[in-house]
Amino acid sequence: MVLANRTRVQNSRTLLRAFGGLNEGYGCSEAEYSAGINFSSRDFPALSTRKPRRKLRTLTGLNGMYHLNGLLTVCGKDLVYTPDDGGETVTCTDAVADSKKALVGLGTKILIFPDKVAFDTADGSVSALGACWKAEGQSVEFAPCDAEGRTYTPTGVGREEPESPADGQIFLKVEDEEHPWRYDGTLEVYSAASGNWTALPLDYCRITAAGAQEKFCQWDTVTVQGTAAKQAGQWEALDGDCVVYTVTENSLCVRADPAGDYFYGTLVQGNDAAQWTSLDGSQTRSIAAEQTVQLERRVPDLDFVTECDNRVWGCSSRENVIYACKLGDPTNWFSYRGIAADSYAVTVGSDGAFTGAATCMGYALFFKENTLHKLCGTKPSDFQLTSLRCRGVAKNAARSLCVLNETLYYLSPDGVMAWDGSIPAKVSAALDAGRLANVKQAVGGALDGRYYLHVSRENEVRLLVYDTERGLWHEEDVCSFEMASTGGQLYLWDGRALWAADPSREAAGQRSEETEQGVEFALTTGDLGLDSPEERYLSRLTLRLDAACRSWVTVEVSYDGGPWENAAALTVEGPRRNCDLHLVPRRCASLRLRLWGYGQITLRSLAKTFSGAKGNWMELEG
Predict the structure, then answer these.
(1) Which pLDDT tens digit goes with each residue over 504-514?
(2) What 3-state DSSP class applies to 242?
């Protein structure tokens, strides 16, 4: 009898030790998981549960958080600042309106929009960025003056100077004696030492208004409104934006070019009337005043703000204008003196509303849903605006903008993007794009090379974590309706309390009773066994786990897409322990595993043993 030679199918064993992240697509491999919660890649290539968080304090009504030398929280109408150096907590009550905030830091100050106020972290004070003074029931005096705010009274008026003037005598030399107070006259002063008359230019206007000098500072740009100067024939363009050159105890001095037939005089304006008096007091006129005098230092309405090169930049979803404040001065946004420290504004021609603003790689960036505007330069004279049609920031996702390791991450209508200075690249191919669309809110944060993205939709809230170094996504339980990154810590707010993402970096750290002792976790693997040949089947699975504290794990199996069946369970009491979970699955084309439980575990490896599906089946030829 002759027996045919047949191959012998031997058992084989493969070991999976490098685990990927979340993959919600059809191509989820056995090294990834298709759904899960509270796992991370912090122990890569192993798969670990996230670090327990620490509850810092109860917090309600949070409208915004920002870190600058300490953590500022906006709770309702109150500001609460906790310094990093352990100093006393500062609380400012009724400082802002109860609404969502856009915050940005400049120097020691945190600017709060739309309230247009600044919180100074150095002294704990709150001040308004803008200022407004109204002449409610008060009279306001306008008089031509020199650069130092001095006014002059001439002793004579005429076409020719007097023959024997005294030293220091003031004289008004006119061109037309029928209009002696017209702007083309020249105010002169005589010097006995030189024997000459010297012109006194009055290119400024002294505004005497009780209390106004307390609201404005030198070099402020003030918008003057409601004056009767034009009707009085004194100044043609006093109403408008003026630069404050001098501030005295009871007056302001602004630049105003001479104009009008009654320039050389003093105008006192009341509630409904104004009176003009010539400089020598010889002539008076009455003028009707239709408006109330108002002085205002304006600040534009901004929805999105960022800081770049010692300027605060901003834009609004209601207009197509980008604003920048005066260099180092967030109180002045309309200062145009022709110097390098000027404010800046530019209108863009792209369609749609602005959706966000950020700073990265030395550029001020402004986003729409389909456009990126990039501003570069060092001063207003060489600022350049370039536009790029690309996937921009999604609507309601302005706060998803986050700079991490020199790369800007944000949520676009097409998914999560990364911008490193060239073209935005999509990094969320592993996620379900439909679950990232039409968001109501998106908030971003960063910690240790991981980008945290909170996404709120109509019926779903998620906290996604992207490991930027390894390109892996994970999902954690939601605790992130507000986030603030410090560089060494990430603070999260769950709607009721403030949490620290890494307790070891806080005082008391893991020893605090407010620190989670374990976390609830769950994980569903991709299909196992799809890569095995037909003559083999998966006969044994071994999961090697590390438990860092008291933990329990349940393993379930789904065969060929069928219902979930209990396969194994493990409970660990006490300190750290290494454990093996052995599973003997039944024959199937493919299977999936689901792990869920509580505690702190690390999945070290997954060993798969394959056995022959039948005896010798293929004859060898030759």
Answers:
(1) 888 765 556 68
(2) strand
CB within 8 Å of 3: residues ≥ 6 apart: none
Residue with tokens 């299909």: 527
Say how far apart CA 132 and CA 236 lie, in whole Å.
Answer: 23
Read off φ and ψ for residue 382, nearest 5 degrees: -125, 15
Burial of 286 (0-12, 13-18, 19+ CB in 10 A): exposed
CB 147 within 8 A of CB 203: yes
User: Residue 552 and residue 550: Cα distance in Å, rounded?
Assistant: 7
Whether 384 contacts 432, CB under 8 Å: no
Q: b vs e for 405-443, b when ≥16 Cβ sit within 10 Å of the residue's Cβ?
A: eebbbbbbbbbbbbbeeeebeebbebbeeeebeebebbb
User: In Å, how far are 34, 155, 378, 568, 613 from 596, measured between CA atoms?
Assistant: 14, 97, 55, 11, 31
CB burial class (10 A; 0-12, 13-18, 19+) of residue 596? Answer: middle
pTM: 0.88
Average pLDDT of span 538-562: 88
Task: Give the pLDDT of residue 513.
Answer: 64
Cα-Cα end-to-end distance for the chain: 18
Q: What is the mean pLDDT of residues 338-352?
A: 93
Sheet with 196-199, strands from edge to edge, namely 156-158, 170-173, 186-191, 196-199
Q: H-helix or E-strand containing 170?
A: strand 170-173
Q: What is the mean pLDDT of the chain?
A: 89
Q: Cα–chain-centroid distance for residue 551?
A: 40
> What pLDDT digit, counting tens, does each position of 9-28 carry?
567 788 888 999 999 988 88
